[in-house]
UniProtKB/TrEMBL annotation:
Identification of the protein by name: PP14C phosphatase
Keywords annotated in UniProt: Acetylation, Phosphoprotein, Protein phosphatase inhibitor
Any one GO molecular-function label of the UniProt entry: protein serine/threonine phosphatase inhibitor activity
Start-end of Gly residues biased regions: 27-37
Gene Ontology CC annotation, any one: cytoplasm
Organism: Zosterops hypoxanthus
Lineage of producing organism: Eukaryota, Metazoa, Chordata, Craniata, Vertebrata
Keyword Acetylation: yes
Biased composition (Low complexity): 1-12
Amino acid sequence: MSVATGGSEAAAAGGGGGNRVFFQSPRGGGGGSGGSSGSAAREDSVSAAAAVVQVQQRRHQQGKVTVKYDRKELRKRLVLEEWIVEQLGQLYGCEEEEMPEVEIDIDDLLDAANEEERALKLQETLVDCYKPTEEFIKELLARIRGMRKLSPPQKKSI
């Protein structure tokens, strides 16, 4: 595969069918068809600096995303989810990889009108479990009491 981004004279200078990549000079000159080695080194350092700036900008943007959530609430949610996985493993008598498809949506439970509705949703989810689930359901309902539903982060308008 041949990629030519330096214009028609750069592609023509390539001659054969080998794999060649041509870079266009940021100032529009040279075309990559044979300029001095100093300009090639300068172009490499400019492109490397631009890549570093892009990575730093991405990291900065990623950092902003987590600030939009309440970290304490996220940590509580993570601990609860780990506990649920552990308990389901005990209820089904298997490892997480072997567990049947069981989905317990905490936000869905929090949307329920009352404790009875939450318990019914959990019982429906765990209908194929052969072990008693009452203690698990009671404990889970006690653990989610007082939790808030996590909403997606709000986008800032510029």
